[in-house]
């Protein structure tokens, strides 16, 4: 990796050079910022640096998080994942993409941040799937001061898929389970029925195989730096059991339950799907009010 130099600015575009192309991000750095910076790692799917997606998601959650952290004196860096938005050119063919590539990208961003004389160390803040990326990437560099999981997954992707598919009718469910078993064993499945292609098409199987090697609770247990597990009470994608599993895996971890916060970090008192979806498509809705103070309190306690 070759790293760009970070210029002094309140909001600066940042470029990470990789073997497959450039990955683009944004550094928000307030004046007299803490020497600890936060790397915001996006969740699954085509999610960009701001928390939005071509799949119809428009939250601006990560941008709001960056701006709010700056108000508390903390710089942050958020980025478009390889293959997404401005980083589209860095994406390889889908069949060549692995979960490990996302992990290595996060570790490389850490190195870029600490190359800036303003920062000594980095806290990884991973949202949803990004929480697992953060847990693993923290072990790839000594510059990580702590990890924060925001609505982070608490079980391996194969277990999550089984849970999500449990209510499907037969023989659909059994065939899905068979494919999951094969992928978990590291074996690709050559023939996938058309109705299952959206989940298990051959080109996405290498990514799933690589992701299934990581179990979030085990990664949390092995973590050597402070861990904050943050979970909302009205999250319809990740539940409190995930947060409890993560936090109890590491005896030094702190668990923060945010009342009425949903998966996109926005306030939503209802579990009704329509009410939830309104926060997924309304980029002007503010973050859950106690979220950033909770994060800032954790950051302030780091030594």
The CATH H-level superfamily of the largest domain is Alpha/Beta hydrolase fold, catalytic domain
Q: What CATH architecture of the largest domain do you see? A: 3-Layer(aba) Sandwich
User: How many E-type strands?
Assistant: 9
Number of helices: 11
Low-confidence blocks of residues:
1-9
Q: What best-fitting shape do the alpha-carbon axes yield?
A: globular
- Average pLDDT score: 94
Q: Into how many domains do the coordinates divide?
A: 2
- The side-by-side strand order for the widest beta sheet comes to 1-2-3-5-4-6-7-8-9
Which series of helices and strands comes N to C?
EEEEHEHEHEHHHHHEHEHH
The helical percent reads 25-40%
Structural class: alpha/beta
Radius of gyration: 19 Å
Main pleated-sheet profile: 9 strands, mixed
Question: Roughly how many Å apart are the termini?
Answer: 30 Å
Instruction: Please identify the top-level CATH class of the largest domain.
Output: Alpha Beta
- Classify the beta-strand content into a percent band: 15-25%
Write the CATH fold name of the largest domain.
Rossmann fold
Give the oligomeric state. single chain
